[in-house]
Write a structure and sequence with these properties.
With about 300 residues, this protein is an alpha+beta fold. It has ten helices and nine strands. Helix content is about 45%, strand content about 15%. A hairpin with a 2-residue loop joins strand 7 and strand 8. The longest helix is centred in the first third of the chain and has 25 residues. The mean pLDDT is about 90.
């Protein structure tokens, strides 16, 4: 019995050591942050290189919706929004619908021959005085096809002043809806729709955090904004990734803003370009910047604190 007891005493420390060795050492918060800092720094360098290689004036804002870390580059300059301002129009529609006052998603609208602007769009191809469409359908046309006629109808239905009052309410000073779509005369007079990359991600963050609508409406809003469309942010990203965004383009202007719902690490991004001599290059640059950002969030979102890929 004494021999057995002695053997157990000798083996016990080894057993405990084996148990301890089988567990990975807990990584400290500082160590985890240091690793992420390294990856974040590489992302910033990559985006800086892309911006320098682009002939346009480029502004970038990227916001981690998990820990609020942000990257800003030329992000407070004011840019023409082009169709990215439609995010604000869409938000005001959902705000009024949820409050139960003003425009509702299910409200019907009879197409008017005077609705048409430009030379393209589904709405102006519908039978005037006969075709009826809901505000939700108008919003779908605005988001998916960037239908400017549908957008102008929605602007009138929710009210331009209401859109701007809400933007001011959430602290945005440079994001304003000042004209209808394709109103060149208004733009020439200085009434341009404007924003900054920082303010666009601030707007998206407010909605994502549930400070604008309730949970159900927030989910429906982003589902609408994620409707498939031709845009720049998704060009290099996985096709199965949920991306709720709205691009915009004008002569010498290319923009895109939205939330990329990376599993475990969603982030908001806004890239605005102006004075672009080559619009196609500006579009490609937006896609490259989005990919550089996604590379960081994808790795952090699906990895353990030690950096191991966990599926």
């Amino acid at each position: 019995m004494k021999i057995i007891a002695l053997l157990l005493a000798l083996l016990a420390p080894a057993a405990f050591a084996a148990t301890d060795d089988a567990k990975a050492p807990a990584d400290t918060t500082e160590s985890v942050r240091a690793k992420q800092d390294l990856l974040w720094g590489r992302m910033e360098e990559s985006i800086g290189t892309i911006v320098r290689e682009t002939d346009a004036v480029v502004g970038v804002a990227i916001l981690d919706l998990t820990d609020q870390r942000a990257f800003y580059l030329n992000a407070d300059a004011i840019y023409p929004t082009a169709s990215t301002i439609k995010i604000a129009v869409l938000a005001e529609l959902y705000r009024q619908h949820e409050r139960g006052s003003g425009a509702k998603l299910g409200d019907l609208y009879t197409v008017n021959a005077k609705d048409g602007v430009g030379t393209e769009g589904i709405l102006q191809a519908m039978s005037a005085g006969v075709s009826r469409i809901t505000n939700r359908d108008l919003a779908l046309l605005m988001v998916s096809l960037s239908d400017n006629s549908a957008t102008n109808v929605l602007i009138d239905r929710v009210g331009m002043d209401n859109v701007n009052a809400w933007l001011a309410q959430i602290g945005l000073e440079r994001t304003r809806l000042r004209r209808h779509m394709l109103d060149v005369k208004a733009a020439q007079e200085g009434r341009e729709n404007t924003s900054t990359p920082r303010e666009l991600v601030t707007l998206l963050r407010a909605i994502h955090e549930g400070r604008v609508f309730g949970k159900a409406t927030t989910e429906e809003f982003f589902k609408m904004l994620a409707t498939e469309k031709s845009s720049y942010i998704p060009r290099r990203l996985p096709v199965d990734l949920m991306i709720a965004n709205k691009p915009g383009s004008l002569d010498a202007v290319r923009n895109d803003a939205g939330i990329i719902f990376v599993p475990g690490r969603p982030f908001a991004i806004a890239v605005m370009t102006t004075f672009a001599a080559d619009g196609l290059e500006a579009e490609e640059s937006i896609g490259r910047i989005a990919y550089a950002a996604w590379s960081y969030f994808d790795r952090v979102g699906k990895s353990s604190s030690l950096g191991r890929l966990v599926r």
